[in-house]
Protein 1
Amino acid sequence: MQNESETFVTRRDLLSLVGTVAGGAAMYQAMTSLGFASESGYKGPIKLEGDTRGTSVLVLGAGLAGMTAALELRKAGYKVEVLEFNSRPGGRNWTLRGGDSFTELGGATQTCEFEQGLYLNPGPWRIPYHHRALLDYCKRLGVALEPFIQLNHNALLHGSDAFGGKPQRIRDIKTDFQGHVSELLAKATQQGKLDEMVSAEDKAILLQALRSWGVLDKNYAYSASLDSADFRGYARDPGGGLGAAPVAGEPVGLSDILTSRLWRYLQNFALYQFQTTMFQPVGGMDMIGKAFAREVGDLIRYDAKVTRIQQDHGGVTVSYLNAKTPAAPQLAKADWCICTIPLSILSQIPVDVGPRMKAAIDAVPYASSVKIGLQFKRRFWEEDEAIYGGISYTDLPIRQISYPSSGFNRSGRGVLLGAYVYEGANSFEFTSMNPADRVARAVDFGSSIHPQYKTEFENGIAVAWHRVPFTLGCAGNWSDKAREEHYDNLCRIDGRIALAGEHASYIPAWQEGAILSSLDAITRLHERVVKS
Amino acid sequence: MQNESETFVTRRDLLSLVGTVAGGAAMYQAMTSLGFASESGYKGPIKLEGDTRGTSVLVLGAGLAGMTAALELRKAGYKVEVLEFNSRPGGRNWTLRGGDSFTELGGATQTCEFEQGLYLNPGPWRIPYHHRALLDYCKRLGVALEPFIQLNHNALLHGSDAFGGKPQRIRDIKTDFQGHVSELLAKATQQGKLDEMVSAEDKAILLQALRSWGVLDKNYAYSASLDSADFRGYARDPGGGLGAAPVAGEPVGLSDILTSRLWRYLQNFALYQFQTTMFQPVGGMDMIGKAFAREVGDLIRYDAKVTRIQQDHGGVTVSYLNAKTPAAPQLAKADWCICTIPLSILSQIPVDVGPRMKAAIDAVPYASSVKIGLQFKRRFWEEDEAIYGGISYTDLPIRQISYPSSGFNRSGRGVLLGAYVYEGANSFEFTSMNPADRVARAVDFGSSIHPQYKTEFENGIAVAWHRVPFTLGCAGNWSDKAREEHYDNLCRIDGRIALAGEHASYIPAWQEGAILSSLDAITRLHERVVKS
């Protein structure tokens, strides 16, 4: 799952959130020259060289952080064992398909009824092009990728009180807002109102640029024409043969766009983390977890619920129960421990670490998030509305509808993401409902955007992350203050224990953060081992 | 192939071109209300009802227009025969793979040396979501589609004289231009300079919107910060573990962007015809032609070069030669004729039509276009530069480099589009070279954008459309004046002959135009038959 809070918070909140994630103003640094590519924290496959002298490492958690550690540590010569709470690998790297069932906190069990081949990724569902570590593991482990469509110009923006509740095409709002802004600035420029801000030489080029960028006419006006239609789309598309000339539509007025507040969704698609080209694994996100498990599955003990983590000078001892049939606790021992258990869980387990790391473990609340997958009899969004992939945004509690980025243009059933709520009141509200009600509400709200919901809906499944037993939340939700005070203490090795996971990264809620934090932790652990 | 002229003409030229394609100002029509979706000329599968009484139709050309006609006419009860110049179906719907060879006008023969699974689409290569007819035929004929990536924020914009010849990331130029424009307009707004243009109520929201859209700080300035980095990318990406805080880069100054003129490429991606979500057939564009041929292949006589088209009250008689071993001409007869031969060829064939249609046939020059496919030892654009699909634009004669939209993140060889030139001096220049020189020049130019070219290049193939024997050009290049004078005369049925193809549409150079024109022509032909 990823941070989608920009979909329902104000712009101010988003900026504040970004600042939070990044660790505050202290981190800001203006660089005087631009590199050709931005620098990734991933420099290619890790190399752990040196004699590990039979050292053993116990890894807690078989999510991506844990399995990355297991894979690389074994390759480096360590003896590795992994304890995993679930009966499957992957953790939040998880896909629900027809026949899968899952029980949430509170006891409600859902069984997925999707048709074969259809699925929901309740957790992470897309991969940015700059997540170099994750992409490299996909390549090395043979995980086939396909594009994930984030921005679809033909998807919808919907405000309950905007345009009489009638959804607008993204291409219309985007083109028209840009056109109006360009017109205003061009006119101000022409009227000499920017003379203090723009040089005479630049002014002439600025006017050209605004005309190009805003699709302005020769008088620098943005207006209804086949020129603007060539970007915003037509009232009637150009055709073939006789009587096939195109007809332009009327742009939405600036005042209407402003008061509709639909402009606040436009930059979602431009965020570095959501820019083209994004990916998803062919067949479901858990193809990645499964690929890791092909490598390290033999090291994993499933259904192992960790109840205590102890350490002394000689090593680490972890107590665990069988999560399905709890009996007497069992013990696992090793020289070192990489613990990837989410802080929401770890903070409830007795752990022998110093007060600094313990305070850090306790400092991070976990974000609330809800995802609801809905199966329909047919892909009406494609057939009726020419919407292929992408996301429609709304101010309704479902916040967004995302259309599948696979199976394009096929006949038959389809599953879309009927709600994706991240933090905020709506997320808590959905979490408080029973699963059937969540699905019913998603269908109800969605039908005001797509009336076809009413006749085409078949079944659904709803995951509320605060009720997911193995994480009790979606992802570590660092505040600026908490990060400043605790982040380094969380990441520093305490005795023989090192923590890893998305919570131990500057890319919270992303799989890349989990992998990079794991690579960093095992690198530092390995340095201690070979130097000791 | 499609109209990519916006990549190397001025914005003014583009606007003028758009006007041309659309048929001029007379077509403009402001609509007072916005439809939920724009109206497509395609209303679902064609229904040709009524008794065809054994009527026969001769179709000339087995491109998409011809095969659409053959498929639908046979289904409606007509006796259909198709004559095709090439030894394969599809016409410009064409894919070159390893082992394919092709001889251009002038006699040069190229044999494609691509590794198995790699290909070049010399003609059309992408499908917009609003090309409803083409998409419906893909669905009906079982052609699997995958996304075609047009906009990749991490691809490059390159000006020989801009930034010392150093390519810039699209995300940087896009974010920074938008940021600077927003800052200028916000400041003008704050200073009361827009008071005549914007109401007081709108002004407050406009400032909020500009702050969101332009990623402005609380003082409405666009500047180096982790906020702007969250859109333009970072100097150092956020990472995991210790020492992983992100570092922001320095935005490009407005003056530098303006004088670089890289802004002129920004709207390419926003054009209705190039907007997300676009598609390509899995495995090559000719999967569509092959799918049609599975339906109507039994009706097609290949290697048939039409030399004369005659008609009288009784029917149509077409003379043709075997294109490979020309001997005595053979005759094909039918009651009616659907002729999809490109006008560049048809204007050189004696045709019994009235002076109006004949004048129309002669009125349309064919566009020049060159495409060059280059195979490299590895997908360095992905591995080294994180560029997955999309297009880099340059003012060099190659104009654009397009990275493949399939095989993402795989090891091994890859083929990219090393040049795509549409009209203009560069197109004629490339056309005048022999194929080997075209490829060598593309490698030479491209290496100033991707230095890896020098060591990774293996082989290439170059198609110059003015030298392609079956079209003598890329597509009908209607002028505004020609369309006004001749378009309807081209489309009207002359006796027993109706024309179809992209040239008989308002969507020139696109496959949708070919199909829609064909559906329109056979609809009108059928009306005459059942009413006669």
Note: Chain B touches chain A through 140 residues (CB under 8 Å).
Protein 2
Amino acid sequence: MDFKACYNNYINTVNTALIVNMPPRDAYPSRIHEAMHYSLFAGGKRLRPVLCLASFELFDSMTAKVLPVACALELIHTYSLIHDDLPCMDDDDFRRGMPTCHKKFGEAIAVLAGDALLTEAFAMASSIGNTGYSATIISMLAAASGSTGLIGGQVMDLLSEDKPIDVELLEYIHRHKTGKLISVSVESGAVCAGADSTALSALTKYGEALGLAFQISDDILDVIGDAEKLGKNVGQDAKLNKATYPSLYGLEESKKKLHETVEQALISLQGFGKKSGFLCELARYVAYRDR
Amino acid sequence: MDFKACYNNYINTVNTALIVNMPPRDAYPSRIHEAMHYSLFAGGKRLRPVLCLASFELFDSMTAKVLPVACALELIHTYSLIHDDLPCMDDDDFRRGMPTCHKKFGEAIAVLAGDALLTEAFAMASSIGNTGYSATIISMLAAASGSTGLIGGQVMDLLSEDKPIDVELLEYIHRHKTGKLISVSVESGAVCAGADSTALSALTKYGEALGLAFQISDDILDVIGDAEKLGKNVGQDAKLNKATYPSLYGLEESKKKLHETVEQALISLQGFGKKSGFLCELARYVAYRDR
């Protein structure tokens, strides 16, 4: 199967599992479930669950075992987008070409829909049952998403708006705001499959490089991307005076850095041989996407 | 030991565990950790963790085993208060006699502090380790707090502001907004201690009655309570046109209902004999408190 077909297969698996295991759209109180479904099924790339499934499949083919964790990652990602878009945060009106959750449902419901998706993530993850690694997985997800993970990155991003920031702070923000959840996606798949520490450490390196590549690529797309393809306005970072790779390093140097980061990701996978073909392609896809 | 001394003992145990296990106040980024500590150590009654510990002690004396779960319950409770107080929700300026989190730290940090406390709750709960009941406990906490639990109650509370509501809806709101987390506090303690299904079902009944008693008492205090003791304005429910037990049943009938509910709670504990003395006192304390 080629890369695109394989990626689409993963997406279908994740979407089916989400639909089956989430409280339905019309569950009481329906207003909150409509808002949760609206943001969750807005056509995301499902990058985090796909990473988790593909990492798991390096070691084990019984994906049903890891699927709840893959879904939990997407729920955490979606909650973080809803809250980031709020008027008191980035104040965005559009996301993936559609009105943001608070534009559609109002601010109160958007806050609560985010809260509910975050809570549902842990409900979903705990549905793997009382295995020998349940608490480990929950703890990894919470650490990656908490005040010293994703939320920490968002805090520093907010606090440094309209201020000159250095490379160190920029990297802290990116490593935390997007990097941690991407890394833990790869790691949690491997932990569910019982990977040994050597394999796990290689995959951690892959996940970190991929997270960085994702962010550099995001920054570059905000400069040279196509608003229609991206489903959001471009040039927003410059408008908000946000530090980005292009603003600190220049566009060409950022592209070079992106290329080196992809190479690092690929090198980390060498020990897995042919089996890691999909993850290699995925690194290139994340780095050189146009949306 | 008398009831007050015993309650204070539990509070000290919980506060010590929270201080030891939370990211410290000055952890980077310090702004978010200051906000989390500000709301968490604002002098709450620690009712939920105390219920969890006392329920556990009906069966087992090694409280260290259940302490992470007790702390998680307080983190969830604190997050829900911070988000409930936001301008887009109840828009409250004071909580426990102090400025609310968003008044002190701004709205963005308050949203993120709530998110971080919720996430930390699951990190904390997962620190019980990969036991035979870890996933069960996480799943119980998430169900009680999610879109068909606590959040569901908050949604219906918001959607019914300024509208006439019936007894059924009032009870849905209370059973979910406060009842579910109080019930699960009692239940999770018992599950950690390996209680059998008969004991568990008796404690569920106790938890449900206690949650209801707590809410009726809260509604009554908003009519006849002392603002200074409560640390918040009274008469808020009437001002916001909120349905409450007194507004639907009248004050005297509400007091009668409260009394009956306490009786139900006590009856549920009969099978535990003397050991349940503290939980009996706690039901009376919750119902007839002045703050």
Note: The mean pLDDT of chain A is 94.
